[in-house]
Amino acid sequence: MNINLTPLTQCNLFRSLNEQEINSLFSTIPVKQQQFKKGEILAWQDEPCNRLIFLLNGSVKAEMTDPTGKIIKVEDIHAPNPLAILFLFGDNNRFPVQATANEEVTALIIPRSSVLKMLMENESLLKNYLDISANFATRLSRRLHFMSFRTIRQKVSVYILELAKEQQSDTIELRMSKSAIAEYFGVSRPSLERELTHMQQEGLIESERRRITIKEKNKLIKLINF
């Protein structure tokens, strides 16, 4: 099998396994390596999730189309990471999003039966898989909670309050560009900038490039406790 499995040693799924152990796991199961050009689809939303797609290099954007046809960007996924790992098993397991290559991507395609065999043969791998699934479920729950906020102001408030909690400061550094945050919110960049300006004019925050200082935390908390 002429596949470079070295990137897998940097992934949480294979943590605690060395390269020799990983090669041993893959030596007895059918897998294939596949190249995708920028803009190519790795998986379609709602198609059966019958394989684990593992990014060896490159990145993809995960997007979801709602019933009205509106496309919502969920996240960017970078190598080395798997796609839709939580949805590989189940009675109606389908890809929850469309995965599109942001650039040239090399992916390892592992049939579901092969993943099951690996999990049965290696207890450490099984534990890692369960940990990743649980962590993904937690992030998904937080994302759904975030999307329940209807206005841009509510989304801005919950976003910066969560960053303030993580960074343990009322002055926070944004981890993404404002364009990326606007995509995450499902709004336009000008709409986001306009709301940040209004919130600053009202004395709720101070915003300068990627730095935001919370001035009225209680008012922001009240905005999201509806």
Give keywords.
Arc Repressor Mutant, subunit A, alpha+beta, 226 residues, 7 helices, four-stranded antiparallel sheet
Taking strands numbered 1, 2, ... along the chain, how are they ordered across the largest sheet? 1-8-3-6
Named CATH architecture of the largest domain: Sandwich
CATH structural fold name of the largest domain = Jelly Rolls
Please tally the β strands and state the result: 11
Helix content: 25-40%
**Largest sheet report:** 4 strands, antiparallel
Q: N- to C-terminal separation? A: 56 Å
Overall morphology: elongated
CATH class of the largest domain: Mainly Beta
Please describe what this structure looks like.
This protein has helices at residues 19-26, 112-121, 123-147, 152-167, 178-185, 189-201, 217-224; strands at 32-36, 41-43, 51-57, 59-65, 71-78, 81-83, 98-101, 105-111, 171-173, 205-208, 211-214. With 226 residues, the chain is an alpha+beta fold. It has two domains: 6-139, Jelly Rolls (Sandwich), CATH 2.60.120; 152-224, Arc Repressor Mutant, subunit A. The strands form three sheets. A four-stranded antiparallel sheet has the order 1-8-3-6.
SSE order and pairing:
Elements: H1 19-26, E1 32-36, E2 41-43, E3 51-57, E4 59-65, E5 71-78, E6 81-83, E7 98-101, E8 105-111, H2 112-121, H3 123-147, H4 152-167, E9 171-173, H5 178-185, H6 189-201, E10 205-208, E11 211-214, H7 217-224
Antiparallel strand pairs: 1-8, 2-7, 3-6, 3-8, 4-5, 4-7, 9-11, 10-11
Helix pairs in contact: 2-3, 4-7, 5-6
